[in-house]
Amino acid sequence: MIGITREDFGHMIRGAAGAIRAQHGRLSELDCAAGDGDHGATMLRVVESLEKTFAPGGTVELRKCLREAGWSVLGVDGGASSSLLGTFFGGMADAAVCETPLGANELAAVFEAGLTAVRKQTKAQPGDKTMMDALAPAIEAMRASADAGRNAVESLRDAAEAARKGAEGTRNLIARYGRARLQGEKTIGHEDPGAISVGLMFAGFCSGVGKLKGDSGNARS
């Protein structure tokens, strides 16, 4: 059985950081459509914080590492994006109670715990043109994949694909939260930067660990 270890999580984080760094300019451009144009810079600080927490030689226990990552990201000055992502990673620790490696079911439970924590902090739902349009479908796809008997890396790949589709779908939505909601129908035609960031992170998670596990991890960002 292919499982995800604490070391694999480090590779996932570094993959996500690479994806964000490659696209941070695009993220800021998307944010200019209805925000203040600093989302790319915020996400750079978020992934830098995550990388420090998951650096080789750091905290070994996955649950403690996720908790530290959550607090670290919460300390990033970035408004709702950093707050919700910090809540997400911290929430993941609530389910990381078993020893690694994590199989598909255990991995899905960890990500579901993160989503549960986020839902306690925001009323936004898929369809509201926020990061939830990518985050919720990704984790739902991960659970469905695990329930179908796919391994942890395959379920992560399915999650990344669902996140990508969800993020791209925000182009046709009207923003209902944050500063973007003030623009109303003017937000149609622009993808939500938060959702795109989540899609990029999941694609990075997938590519970061996929090569180590003999899976291509070819989810497009």
Task: Report what the structure shows.
The protein has 221 residues and is an all-alpha fold. The chain contains eight helices and no strands. It is globular.
Helix content: 55-70%
- β-strand number: 0
Question: SSE string, helix = H, strand = E?
Answer: HHHHHHHH
Distance between the amino and carboxyl termini: 27 Å
Would you identify the regions where 5 or more consecutive residues have pLDDT less than 50?
216-221
Itemize the secondary structure elements and their pairings.
Blueprint: H1 6-32, H2 39-53, H3 62-74, H4 79-92, H5 104-119, H6 132-147, H7 152-169, H8 193-210
Helix pairs in contact: 1-2, 1-8, 2-3, 3-4, 4-5, 5-6, 5-7, 6-7, 6-8, 7-8
Tell me briefly what this model is.
With 221 residues, this protein is mainly alpha-helical.
Structural features:
221 residues, disordered C terminus, mainly alpha, Serine Threonine Protein Phosphatase 5, Tetratricopeptide repeat, single chain, 8 helices, globular
